[in-house]
Amino acid sequence: MRITDNEIREITNLLKERKPIPDKYRFLIFDNERDYELVWNGKTNLVTNITLPFQTIEHIDEPRIDQKIVVQPDIFDIKTGRQLKGWTNKLIWGDNKFILSSLRNGPFREEIEENGGIKLIYIDPPFDVGSNFKIDIEIGEETFTKESNFIEEIAYTDTWGNGPDSYLCMIYERLKLMYDLLAKDGSIIIHVDDRLNSHIRLICDEIFGKENQVNQIKWCYGGGSAPKNKYQKKSDTLIWYSKNNNWIFNKQFRAYSEGTISRGLTQSKGEKYKLNEQGAQLEDWWSGKEVQKILSPTAYENLKYPTQKPEGLLERIIKGHTNEGDLVCDFFVGSGTTAAVAEKLGRKWICSDIGKFSIHTSRKRLINVQRDLKKGNQNFRAFEILNLGKYEREYFISNLSVEQSKHKDEIKNNIENAFNQLIINAYKAELLEGFRTIRGSKNNRLVSIGPANIPTSRLFAEELIKECLEKNITNVDLLSFEYEMGLFPGIQEEAKSKGINLVLKYIPKEVFDKKAVARGDIKFHDVAFIDVKTNLKNNFLSLELINYSVYYTQGIVSRHEENLKNGKSQIIVENGQVYKISKGKDGSTNPRILLTKNWHDWIDYWSVDFNFESKKEMITFFSEEKGGKISQWTGSYIFENEWQSFRTRKNRTLELKTSEYEILNGVNKIAIKVVDIFGNDTIKVITVNN
What we know:
eleven-stranded mixed sheet, single chain, alpha/beta, Rossmann fold, 690 residues
């Protein structure tokens, strides 16, 4: 095929600008050995290669002291029964692109290899480009929808929300990173539906090699209503690829049908053909109640999480492709099914998700798994919740080349200026210039605005405190769509110790609604307030949660009321209260029904660390200057989850008083963590003198 003059000019300009040449030109300029290749708009062979440190936010390990099994003193603490050393499972909050890159290039890679490498990656990425992060939440007898926050919406749009090309760019880069992380004898199982089956297979052919496609497993399920004008969809596909022909495979068997058992094989094929005592070996066609998709509404495992898969399906996958003690990964973990099943089967695991509510849902589920295993006198591992993403903004800013900075700084400044103006207007503040982190003023307080695309990090807050000290600023509001986990109250205490009154507020998504801003409907709400009562007797401390408040508002409430159709009802959230609104069939508005009748109705989960400053929060990274791996204290502490109470679908009650805990003589720092029904966490640290 001849290259046109326009194509020659385009290629020449790209080379002059030192930009990558699109893959489409490869077929015109160079010989290509591949028989076929999937090409789409925006495809590039470039893969994220950054290394960001992981920060441990929380450590969770149910005490085993009351177990009947023998405690191993080299692994478990004899007094508490908690795990002292060995592999700790990891639940990571953040963008999986950066998580994968950091696992591949960072210090964790060494730990992964020491534990045999990743033997199985299972992913169930969102393949419906019209889906989102909305979650159904139960309160009392009612259910309402938690809207996605702005950070989640940005992530969704940027990664797979702009149609097939965007989706393929997202999954292609991540699959390349996963391939590099996978052990030589490892497998990847990708869960797809018929819309993207062919696309994903061609991508995997390119990355893994078409000779390394082992199976396409058809997962068949029941339930649901049948369409009128086409065949009813009752299957998804599990695509299985390996890195070579040395993969792990454990045979599994299903029960014979009643017809096969009654008929046997000897009648038709002779005596040498006998039924296998274990049953029939599994084929690539999976059906039956063990792997059904539609979970019963009353099923113990049903968390009403969107696209939740049954544990039976994951059990079959994990048993078939790993052995006990092997490492399993899922980078779109959702409600935590992969982690829960891996734990029950004695596998190690790393799981991640970009949704904060997903991390919270998984945390509760995995605590229940630990409790169930303990009741059955079975071993389990501790797990930790980690942050990744807090350093992303700083990384990119500090690593731009001079040439890049000329253009990107201009674009970045224009976008940031417009964004700051938007938030300042919605906050009804006055715009200021000449500051590094301060953007405006309101009622004798200065106003700072966190980044739009990632959670506000400790580094950002520390830079704000630094500027306040330089310019003698004592009162400042920090506005953000999202805060990294574990940021407060430590950052507020740090500011207070330096004479700065720092107030953190959440930015609602509605700031982008010009009409709502003009009408003054925008409500910024404070980080939640926690109040506890201490009960100390003979060195034994218990805590009672006595108050919790948050002034969250979801959406423009007046608009919800205006748009409500006759004869319909809706759940709304306004100023820290949840209401049910409704209209009669004649259009008359009925009185609001308050659903959050008690302050604790807002709480989904709370936990306590009785010795908060016992374990420093460390980050580990490679340093070229020091020639190797180094660890550095962040200035914060890891929350050791020593007691917790939370709601489940089966049990909506919440304990408000902890069990007794023996504390040390002297000054004790106690941390209380509360997670609300939206998955937002708040920590309060108190001092108890004994």
